Amino acid sequence: MVRNLVRGLVVVAMLVGTSVVVVVTGSGTSGASSFDPSSNGCDVLVTAPVGHDCLLPWPNDAFTVKAKSATGLKLDITAAETPANTSSVHISPTYQDDLDGFSPGSDIMTYISGLSLTNSKIATSTDIAASLNANSPIVIVDMATGAHVPYFAELDAQNPNPASQLLLIHPAYALTEGQRYAVVLRNLKNTSNGAIAPAARTLAALNGTLKPASRGAYIKNLITVQLHTLLGGHTPYMAWDFTVGSEMSIARPALTMRDQAYKTLKANGAPPFKVLTNTTSAGVKTVTGTFQVPLFLKQATHTSAMNVSSSGLPKMNGKLTWPADFICVMLSTIQPKGAALPAVYGHGLLGSASEVEGSVTSNFSEKVADDMMGCATDWLGMSANDEQNVIATLGNLSKFPTLVDQMLQGFVNFQFLGRLINSPDGFATSSAFKEGSSASGQVLFKVGKCTYIGYSQGGIMGAAVSAISNEWTRVVLGQGGMDYSGLLLQRSTDWSEYESVLGAAYPNLDDQQIGLQLAQLLWDRGEADGYAQHLTSNPYPGTKVKQVFLIENYGDHQVPNVGTEMLARTIGAKEYAPAFSRVSGSFNTAYGLGVLNQTKSARAALEFWDFGTLTPPTDNLGPSNGSGAAADPHDYGRPSPVITGQIITFLKTGVVPDVCGGKACKAPPG
């Protein structure tokens, strides 16, 4: 997932399952004054740790105002409330404040002095089912249906100081777009196993003395009226509510760009392209070149922001184009079973299109019965060419919107690469893609049969671009996942390199968590977190639904299992069984996943591989790299002819065949 950033650090120095239902009563509709937080940037409900700039609890409708939007709200975060870096520059919330709600994958965060997870019997990542117990001390309530949302919780292990650790609550799947949720904390215990009394400000809200009075009245109504059935008149430690952004608040920019870009092509036509090199070695042909994509950025550079219309949506920058790169790899001759199955390939974090030359799509030396053609382009915003901008952004999170703008341009590039594969006017017209490299030769790949394969970042961002694209319908996400800021980054073994940059700019560890959540509000537009609800069902208007095959490696050091499984639950995946247990060593599927029928075409499938590596940490820390069982299994399985053949079968038929002989999928390291 992560490239080594040592070189980039030099740049920084230079830059300085079961639902529990309750009855929810009352509409909860309030004017903006009902949401008012206190002037220090925290909701009046929370006393924050010393030195923290606040915005707690998070997410929180206290930081919204009423608006004409799909949710009836818009975010209302001021720069004075956001964390400041060591140059006293607060994170600009300008772009976040255009949203009509919070992230579907939001970390729910607050601060409770002396809290003990164990004594409170709070559900952790090893027992998500416990979060739905009737007496669960934390409850997330869907305020439209009354259903309880499963989750796991932890104290922030990135912060070694117990006196200032935040409570982090992770929903088990992406929260429903446009929906309002309430968070209830109750029956909590401290480290001495003593009961933690209701927060003083909760009591003040209930007795009418909390200031501002409008906030007190709002919280009193939430606790005593809207959550009355759940609480039965008992006083919780604290309760608050928040609203998730609507689907178009998140996805409209990407869909707008897609629709504008395709209007520049004739029906089933292809964008202009140029072949730069065409070489063959040991029977493998590699073709490189460029293709032209409508430019939506102000400039065709890796630091440019989006070109927008008066309505704030992306618009094409006249007739300017982005000269996207491509690399395609295929066998130089057509095999007995016919032309190669083509796939757009998504590379890893801060990598490049050249990764396709070593991917499953070019693994021909294993003598797989069928063959593939893999074509790749760079993930703008998250490629090797973007490394300096990524580093600069970590030092000033106000720059984060430019990364997302780049990602969205990259999504258009990926779709146009798919069109070059699918269109008779695309790569099929070039002698470089024909047997014998002559104009009269047979095309080496199946025109119009594009698929998608992505590993690591290619599985995370690939889920997003697949949800909006019509160029392919079958998708393989190897070591995929979702929710960069909440689940993925800090559990990566390479987070220390990122944190060294972020921490130098934002030394307060609680501020770092808030800063990452502010970034996630925009990052949703560039990764699976913002699109997963529309990938295998409920597709966006005019968009084809996809079939997805997720591959997960036990104890992955770079894309943590919890992130992969959150994605699996969100897309409704079924898991191959029997599956190696994540905890006990027995055989069972992950929480919230049913059993995969491997004789039928699958809507969404997950296969879990055990390569004999160690159990990952159960908190938000990355594993320790080592050798043997302590080695990183992130890349394991990719060269396997067994897994490659299984992938090809899925991409051709939609069926995930059993390659594990009716037993849990286990293999030696490597």
Helix content: 10-25%
Class from secondary-structure proportions: alpha/beta
The biggest sheet, with number of strands, parallel, antiparallel or mixed sense and barrel status, is:
11 strands, mixed
Strand numbers in spatial order across the main sheet: 9-10-11-13-12-14-15-16-19-17-18
User: In total, how many beta strands?
Assistant: 19
Number of helix segments? 14
Rg, alpha carbons: 25 Å
First CA to last CA: what distance? Answer: 17 Å
Strand content: 15-25%
Poorly predicted runs:
1-35, 364-369
Global mean pLDDT: 91
CA-based shape: globular
What does this protein structure show overall?
The chain has an 11-stranded mixed beta sheet with strand order 9-10-11-13-12-14-15-16-19-17-18, sandwiched between helices. Among the domains are: 6-245, no CATH class; 248-449, no CATH class. 23% of the residues lie in helices and 16% in strands. A hairpin with a 2-residue loop joins strand 9 (273-281) and strand 10. It is built from 14 helices and 19 strands. By secondary structure, the protein is α/β, with parallel strands linked by helices.
Write the layout of secondary structure elements.
Blueprint: H1 6-15, E1 64-66, E2 73-75, E3 108-110, H2 117-120, E4 138-142, E5 151-155, E6 167-171, E7 180-185, H3 200-207, H4 213-226, H5 228-231, E8 238-243, H6 247-262, E9 273-281, E10 284-294, E11 321-331, E12 341-346, E13 372-376, H7 387-395, H8 400-422, E14 451-455, H9 457-468, E15 474-478, H10 484-488, H11 495-505, H12 509-523, E16 547-553, H13 561-570, E17 574-575, E18 594-595, E19 604-609, H14 641-653
Helix pairs in contact: 1-7, 3-4, 6-8
